[in-house]
Amino acid sequence: MDASEFRRRGKEMVDYVADYLEGIEGRPVYPNVEPGYLRPLIPTEAPQEPEAFEDVINDLEKIIMPGAASPACTELETVMMDWLGKMLQLPEEFLAGKDGEGGGVIQGSASEATLVALLAARTKVTRRLQAASPELTQAAIMEKLVAYFSDQAHSSVERAGLIGGVQMKAIPSDGKFAMRASALQEALERDKAAGLIPFLVVATLGTTSCCSFDNLLEVGPICKKEDMWLHIDAAYAGSAFICPEFRHLLNGVEFADSFNFNPHKWLLVNFDCSAMWVKKRTDLTGAFKLDPVYLKHSHQDSGLITDYRHWQIPLGRRFRSLKLWFVFRMYGVKGLQAHIRKHVQLAHKFESLVRQDSRFEICAEVTLGLVCFRLKGSNQLNEALLQRINNAKKIHLVPCHLRDKFVLRFAICSRMVESAHVQFAWEHIRELGEDVLRAEKK
Ligand code: PLP
Fold first, then answer.
1. 109 CB less than 6 Å from ligand 1?
2. Long-range CB contacts (within 8 A, 24+) of 355-360
3. What tens digit of pLDDT does each residue of 210-223 get?
4. For the chain, which terminal residue's Cβ has fewer other Cβ atoms within 10 angstroms, N or C?
5. Nearest by Cα to 306 from 274, 282, 328
6. Residue 235 beta carbon below 6 angstroms from any ligand 1 atom
7. What is the full DSSP assignment across 158-183?
8. What pTM was estimated for this model as a whole?
9. Which of 266, 158, 161 is nearest to 204 (CA)?
10. How far apart are CA 124 and CA 126, in angstroms?
């Protein structure tokens, strides 16, 4: 949708809302639908090709409005998370289907998803240990719990441990910045010998610093053997798994208990929308369920409906699945795949420009839309380069540390980015690089 169509459609939407408000007296107060009404009304999978905006809007009136804010909000979310799960080829166990044990929920952020997984895992292990030894108090168990994450994981992972009141240990990553079996096993053995209780591993697919991938095929079986919850944080990289050529990066997801990524990062969905799936919904509902009288409803224990309030930290929730529904239908799976592929191709273009200049080096494998690079030389030199780039305000780069190296990160982000922008950015960086090298020689 270009700017002029967006302007026109936006005005139509304002009219739609105004008409709704004007005609509100004529609408039913209470939705006249039965649980599960929505799923049969829409396809079982996202369309491959883009659809017309009119078709989506017509369905809004036909399918969503009869279910008002709820149950339509809940039911569309469950079905959209199944659509998205199928786009990623997630194992069947993560899908809700009509009566699956798993399913997806839209959280606000990857940080929340990690925290929810950690709290659910904490409850699960506590109940398991108390079932075997009823004399154990929750406090006695809590002080021994330990969770693991790679030293490349996002800070939100360690923060989940801080909030959840459990010890977190960073596992040293390998030469490709990936968490591997040997380092995890070593930490586990040491901690078990010290009387600690390992209960959770958070693996990252697409780390923030350099988009590295923890080795799920190694880490997963260890989690199974040790009865530890495996949560996967693929906040950025997850969107790429809708492309068959990148799906292999998700191999090993079958070992996970929960998986999360942010469609708001790279799947053209506006902030906020963080997609989380679990294999066993009872792991969440079992951990977070409380039913005060003011939240009771007639389908409470019928098993017919999903009560998302038990899957998350807040009670109230937004109708975020509408964004997924619109985006999936307006782009089609093929349109979304084309968007991802274009960004990856542009990242490789930037990578090859860097490689052609022997004064620069690439610092980590380029797999998706992020290129880590630097001038060959000291950290001060690269800090000076970054400062010049960001002071010039023509492009914006965020740095990272990879081991002891200060590294610049070139991230392809915008929906509107073109090859010419990448070329422009590189020439700008190269010129400033020359300035920095000249200044160093003086
Ligand atoms: N995990 C990874 C790998 C990230 O790159 C980020 C943010 O960049 C996060 C988690 C945090 O995401 P959120 O802002 O959704 O909590």
1. yes
2. 357/430, 359/433, 359/437, 360/433
3. 999 999 999 999 99
4. C
5. 282
6. yes
7. HHHHHHHT-EEEEEPP-TTS---HHH
8. 0.95
9. 158
10. 5
Residue located via tokens 């002071």: 391
pLDDT of res. 439: 93
Residue 104 has pLDDT above 80, yes or no: yes
* Closest CA relative to residue 115, chosen from 170, 158, 160: 160
Residue 264 Cβ inside 6 Å of ligand 1? The answer reads: no
Domains, the chain: 78-330 (3.40.640.10), 334-441 (3.90.1150.10)
Torsion angles phi and psi, residue 376, rounded to 5: -65, 125
Looking at residue 59, the DSSP 8-state letter turns out to be H
Average pLDDT over residues 92-96: 97
* Ligand 1 centre distance from Cα of residue 358 (Å): 33
- What CA–CA distance (Å, rounded) separates 310 from 304? 15
Closest CA to 237 of 266, 259, 209, 257: 266
Rounded to the nearest angstrom, the distance between the alpha carbon of 400 and the centre of ligand 1 is 15
At a CB cut-off of 8 Å and minimum separation 6, what does 345 contact? none
The answer to whether the Cα torsion of 367, 371, 372, 374 is positive or negative is positive
Report which ligand 1 atom has the smallest distance to the Cα of 113. Answer: 16
* Average pLDDT over every residue of 237-255: 98
Cα 407 to ligand 1 centre (Å): 19
pLDDT (tens digit per residue) in 43-89: 999 999 999 999 999 999 999 999 897 899 999 999 999 999 999 99
CA distance 328 to 352: 32
Q: DSSP assignment of 66-106, as one string?
A: GGTTTTHHHHHHHHHHHHHHHHTT--GGG--TTT-S-EEEE
Where residue 30 falls among pLDDT bands split at 50, 70, 90? confident
Q: Say if ligand 1 is within 6 A of residue 233 CB.
A: yes
